[in-house]
Amino acid sequence: xxxxxxxxxxxxxxxxxxxxxxxxxxxxxxxxxxxxxxxxxxxxxxxxxxxxxxxxxxxxxxxxxxxxxxxxxxxxxxxxxxxxxxxxxxxxxxxxxxxxxxxxxxxxxxxxxxxxxxxxxxxxxxxxxxxxxxxxxxxxxxxxxxxxxxxxxxxxxxxxxxxxxxxxxxxxxxxxxxxxxxxxxxxxxxxxxxxxxxxxxxxxxxxxxxxxxxxxxxxxxxxxxxxxxxxxxxxxxxxxxxxxxxxxxxxxxxxxxxxxxxxxxxxxxxxxxxxxxxxxxxxxxxx
Length: 287
Ligand SMILES: Nc1nc2c(ncn2[C@@H]2O[C@H](COP(=O)(O)OP(=O)(O)OP(=O)(O)O)[C@@H](O)[C@H]2O)c(=O)[nH]1
Ligand SMILES: [Mg+2]
Description:
Blueprint: H1 16-28, H2 30-44, E1 47-53, H3 59-67, E2 75-79, E3 97-102, H4 108-116, E4 120-125, H5 134-145, E5 149-151, H6 163-192, H7 199-207, H8 209-218, H9 247-260, H10 263-283
Parallel strand pairs: 1-2, 1-3, 3-4, 4-5
Helix pairs in contact: 1-2, 2-6, 6-8, 8-10, 9-10
This protein binds guanosine-5'-triphosphate and magnesium ion.
């Protein structure tokens, strides 16, 4: 019912009210419209996930299990060229999320790749089925790279060990990208409330369902994805760490978080609480 915490987070937020606001702002204040349009363009850009690593480590296999998760609205997965190929240029890392695939302890070039990545990087220790103690290699490899490192056997056949936790973590990181983008748009909208010609329209947008949903997406997901990789038996399902699906229960969950978190967490929990209450009101036909 709420899109804020889902795989396609924010999909229920169709942006129609935002488009109406853009039209109104365009009529009232050209400068404000340019600022708003630029922020909306960034927010609506597709999210790129790049799967990278040295030749033969299992980039295609990892890509396949991620892409097969399905229903990932607005997210594109792609395999880069391989790193460290003699005579070839190393691939450019430009994705919103980079998944670096290893199949043993990291090599020097893996660290070069991590340093070349612009934003979020997740390490995946593939071919875990071929290692005696994949959890230990993942922990030491992750520490060496300064990253979260998940053991997986993406191309080892029917078991697909570690695939569910990998998908859960990638989902969480994609939600973080969405949250960051929503926060940037929200900040532009709040800034526009200082412009007299558009203040009323922007405030009305922020107070209506779509603006409230935007606030909830911007607040991000807490708790994020559980740390389910280190030492976990292969193939163990991760608890998704998400609040209840029922809107009233979810509102209660976030209200409970108000006591648990610091000031930032309180703001975030309030935004989500507010959004879930709206969900429940819509569901109960109260608005
Ligand atoms: N044992 C085992 N083998 C795997 C696993 N994943 C991939 N492989 C094998 O490793 C080889 C390379 O896998 P790919 O997924 O093609 O790796 P890649 O990095 O895309 O390779 P290139 O694109 O050719 O550089 C293939 O023979 C796969 O069957 C795994 O989890 N376990
Ligand atoms: Mg490949």
